[in-house]
Amino acid sequence: MPELPEVEAWRRQLDPDVKRSPIAEAGPAHIATLKTFDPPLSALAVEGFAGVQRRAKRFLLPTDDGELVLMVHLMSAGRLTYIAPGAKAPKTPVFRLRFVDGGELVLTEAGKKKRAGVWLLRADAVEAELASLGPEADTLTAETLAPILAGDNRRLHALLRDQRALAGIGRAWANEILNVAKLSPYALSTQLSDEETDRLAAAIRSELARGLELRLQGADDAATYRVHRRLGEPCPNCATPLAQIDFEEHTIFYCPHCQTGDRVLKDRRMSRLLR
């Protein structure tokens, strides 16, 4: 799933492109992709975009007059791409927007499940739509992170992925962050010491910054992730082979030496959970 580094890198790449020309036509959109009906997509015709903004993992494209905002959430398999005038475009994207100069903004989604979403919102509705999101993860300090940890007694990997607690981190970057912080994915948020909270806050900032820099350079997953999806490879910290915990919807990757004190964590399919 694209997370803060990936979405922010795409935002910077898309920003100059969407401002070049007014909109000729918005749509069509897959019935499962378009989440709003009022205002209609036709309201975007002849409007121009002021650029691309980001909140958490969402793209926000406000119109020049500030009255409408097109919001796009990629979920796990969506990709938002600008197609230059005359370039080959996908035949059946889940959403297409055409500009007057012939350029297109297209949303594609791999697989049969259509989870990516497009919303067209009036400006005064955007704040309410985003109200449930926590602070941007890359802005946190130890001082601002501490009350978030203290206010929700959960395992760290789950808390880091909760967009209501802090916004922008998903499964992959939670794995990377916790490895750098040398913290167990099963550690309880309310039981971290001040020193561990400092390490976690520093790791969040450094890893998201590292990820953004690499994505801006065009790095792929293999060149970006040091822990995620690297089962059996040496831990970047101590060279111990990395381990994994499997769940129905995701897999956690971690070091059983420097993160869990030589304890192998178990998933529900193998045995009861161990702290």
Summarize the structure.
With 275 residues, the protein is an alpha+beta fold.
CATH domain fold name of the largest domain: N-terminal domain of MutM-like DNA repair proteins
Oligomer: single chain
CATH H-level homologous superfamily name of the largest domain: MutM-like, N-terminal
Biggest beta sheet attributes: 4 strands, antiparallel
Shape: elongated
Beta percentage is 15-25%
State the CATH class of the largest domain: Alpha Beta
What is the number of independent domains? 2
Parts with pLDDT < 50 across at least 5 consecutive residues: 271-275
Give the fraction of residues assigned to helices.
25-40%
Termini gap: 27 Å
Biggest sheet strand order reads 1-6-7-5
Q: Which structural class should the secondary elements be placed in? A: alpha+beta
CATH architecture label name of the largest domain: Alpha-Beta Barrel
> What is the number of E strands?
10
Number of helices in the DSSP assignment: 7
Order of helices and strands: HEEEEEEEEHHHHHHEE
Describe what you observe in this structure.
There is one protein chain. This protein has 275 residues and is α+β, with helices and mostly antiparallel strands. The chain folds into 2 domains: 126 residues, MutM-like, N-terminal (N-terminal domain of MutM-like DNA repair proteins), CATH 3.20.190; 118 residues, Helicase, Ruva Protein, domain 3 (Orthogonal Bundle). It is built from 7 helices and 10 strands. The strands form 3 sheets. A 4-stranded antiparallel sheet has the order 1-6-7-5. A 4-stranded antiparallel sheet has the order 2-3-4-8. A two-stranded antiparallel ribbon has the order 9-10. Helix 1 packs parallel to helix 6 and helix 5 crosses helix 6. The protein starts with a helix and ends in a 21-residue tail after the last strand. The C terminus is likely disordered.
